[in-house]
Amino acid sequence: MAFSLFGSQSPLAARAARSQEFVPIKEIHDGVVVLDGGGLRGICMCSSTNFALKSHDEQMAILSQFARFLDSLDFSVQLFVQSRKLDIRPYLATLEERFYAQKEELMKLQVREYISFIRSLTENTNIMSKHFFAVIPYDSPLAANVPLLGGLGKSAEKTSEKNPLESRDTFEEYRLQLEQRMDVVATGLGAASIRVTQLGTEELIELFYQEFNVGELERPVQIT
């Protein structure tokens, strides 16, 4: 499943399409990111843990398990933190629906005041949401070794070699190797009390769209 990282309705769509030439992603399908050089990337979302609230023994156990996980790896893993200003618009839209659904004037007044409070709070305070990801690679012998998430803002050289994943059988073979690596990462992080969920195709598309459309996603809305 191929996709565009940039919106097609924007006046800058043509320039954005040219910018996409610097992104080393060829396509996304079957929950796998395929790079231009033929390398595969699987991405897992990782849960957070409130380390500061753990007892000393619990903290040491988590650190010990995480160190064992790192020592057990025989391939590279990229840990990526996505930090975004909290998008409160869906919540405000829900509150607005509640406002219009109310029949009692007192309740409508309270809902309106609450909407005003939430809007003022989010406008005057940078409330950030953070998501944590692990990027697991599998590169064929001909694949270009390029970073996927943290290096997306940098230009990546296009490989002139033939894509080694043109064969479906070859892709399935490499995908199996990638899934085995992802299982190793999930097991290792799970031992350190970190839950891991592999992103599917639609979730990957949404992740990369958010990376390249930050301004559009953070555009303010007006609640009347």
In short:
The protein has 224 residues and is an alpha+beta fold. 43% of the residues lie in helices and 17% in strands. The protein has two domains: 13-83 and 130-217, no CATH class; 87-126.
Distance between the termini: 40 Å
- Proportion in β-strands: 15-25%
**What structural category arises from helix and sheet content?**
alpha+beta
Total number of strands: 6
Low-confidence stretches: 1-9, 143-148, 150-162, 219-224
> What's the tally of helices?
7
Helicity level: 40-55%
Which geometry do the CA atoms define? extended
List the helices and strands in order. HEEEHEHHEHEHH
Largest sheet: 6 strands, antiparallel
Query: What is the C-alpha radius of gyration, as a whole number of Å?
Result: 22 Å
Number of domain modules? 2
Mean pLDDT figure: 78
Can you walk me through this structure?
The protein is an alpha+beta fold and 224 residues long. The protein has helices at 13-19, 56-72, 89-101, 105-124, 168-191, 201-212, 214-217; strands at 25-29, 32-35, 40-46, 78-85, 128-138, 196-198. Strands 1, 2, 3, 4, 5 and 6 form a six-stranded antiparallel β-sheet that branches. α2 (56-72) packs antiparallel against α5 (168-191). Mean pLDDT is 78; it is low at 1-9, 143-148, 150-162 and 219-224.
